[in-house]
Amino acid sequence: MSTPAATRDRELPRLVRAMAVVERVGNALPHPFWLFWVLSAILAVVSAGLAAAGVAVVAPDGEPVAVRNLLSGDGLAMAVSSMIDNFAQFPPMATIVTVIMGVAVAERSGLLAAAMRAGVARVPASLVVFAVAFAGTVAHVASAAAYVILVPLGGLAFRAVGRSPILGIVVAYTAIASGYDASPVPTPNDAIFAGITTAAARIVDPAVVVTPVGNWFFNIASSVVLALVITLVTRVVLAKRPDLDPDPDAPDDDVAGLSLSAAERTGLRRAGWVLLGGAVLLVAVVAPEWSPLRGENGSIVESPLVEGIGAVIALLFGLLGTVFGRAVGTITTAAHVPKLMADGIRQMAPVLALFFAIAQFLAYFDWTHVGDVLAVVAADALRTTGVPIPVVFLMVLAVLTVVNVMVTSGTAMWSIAAPVIVPMLMLVEVPPETTQALFRIADSGSTAITPMSPYFVMALGFLQRYRKDAGIGTLASYTLPLAVAMTAVWTLLFFAWWALGIPLGPGAPVR
Known about the structure:
By secondary structure, this protein is an all-alpha fold.
C-alpha cells in the first residue's frame, strides 16, 4: 500500500528530479568566497590571452582601451599593492556596516519580532493571506532573521483564524524568499546592491553614485503587488489542494504566542511616535531651500541627505530599537546599545569575509579592462543587430533567474553579473538603477523553489511539524505556483514602470 509521500512523489516526478539535479549541481560549486578567487584566476588567464592578441576597443569618451595582462609583472604588483585599499574602498563596506549597526539594535531589542507579530495577530480570516504576505516583504529589514521569526508565525496566524497552518508556512516563506528584494522599507541588502552597482557603473562613468534608495519607489509598489499576487494565487490555486490538513499527531501549537505583552504594546506605541516625530523633524529640516541637507540649487535628489541615507536609516532603526528596548527591558543602560551594535557586526562577519574576495575580483576586473571590452562589444552588438531594449531585458532576466537557482547568494550573483551587465546597458542609455531593478526580480523569483537555499530546508523543517512525510518535492509543489506568478507579474510591473518612465527612486530615472 503506497504512502501519501509516495503518492505525491508520483504526482511530481519531474519536479522532484529537477530539484535533485539542481541540488547536486549547486553542491558542486565552491563556497562563494572561493568562487571569486576561482573567477579571479580565470580572469587572469583570459586577460593574458586577450592582451597577447592585442584586443582593444574605443571607449565612449573616444579613448582607446586595451586589455591588460593580470599575469604580468604590472598585474602582480597591482594585485599585491592594492589589496588592502581594494577592501577598504569597496563601495558597500562602510554603508552596510553603518546600516547593520542600527538594524541590529532594532532586531536584538525585540522590536522587529514584535512588529511582525503585531502585523499578523488578530487579523480577520479574509485578510490573513495578504497580511502574512505583506509582512513577509516588510520582514526583509531583518535579513535572515525574517525566516526564523515570520515563517512559524505564518502557521500560527493561519491556525488562529481556522486556516491550514501548512498554507500559512508556505505563504510566509514564499513571500520572504521570492519577494526578498521588494521591501517598502530600506534594508541592508539595498546598501550592498547599491555599492556593487556603483562599482560596476564606474567602469563607464567614474562619477556615478547609486544610493541605497535608488529603487525605493519601485520596491514599495512591488511589495504591494506581490502581496496581492500571493493572495490571489493562494485563494485560487493552493487553498483548493486536498492535502492541507495537518497530520493527526501534529503538535497543537499555542496561538496565544502571537499576542503581545503590555510592555511590548507600549514599546511599539512609543516607537511609532518616535518614528512619526522623526519624519516630521526631517521634513522640517529639509523643507527650506537653504537647508544644509539640500544640494546645489536646493536639490533634494543630489543632496547630502540622499548621499548619507545609509546613516539616516541606521540612526532611525537604532533610535526606534532603543526606545522599544527601554520599554520592554531588553535595553536597560546606555552601554547595552553599542553591545547590540557589535553583535550585529559580528553577525555580518561572513559577509565581510566575502566582501574581501569580491573587492579583489572587481578591482582586477577593472584594472584588466576586460569589463570595458565586454561592455563595449556587447553594446555595439545590440546597436548593430537592433535588438529592442525590452527583449534585452528579458534575456538578462532569464539568464540571471537560471543562475539564481544555483547561486542563491544575491551578493555573489550580482558581484559576478554587474560588472558586465551594468556597463553594457549603460552604453545603450539604460541607467544602472534600472538594471539593478531587473536584477532584483531575478534574484528573488526562483529562490522559493530551489533546495540550494538553506532557508528552503528551514521552511521544510517547519512544514514537517504539521506533515512528517513532507519532502523537497512537497514544499516545491506548494511554492512553485506562487514563485512563477510572482516573477511573471513582477516582470510586467517592471515593463509598465519602464514604459511610463516613472522614477525608480529619488534621483533615479528609469530611462
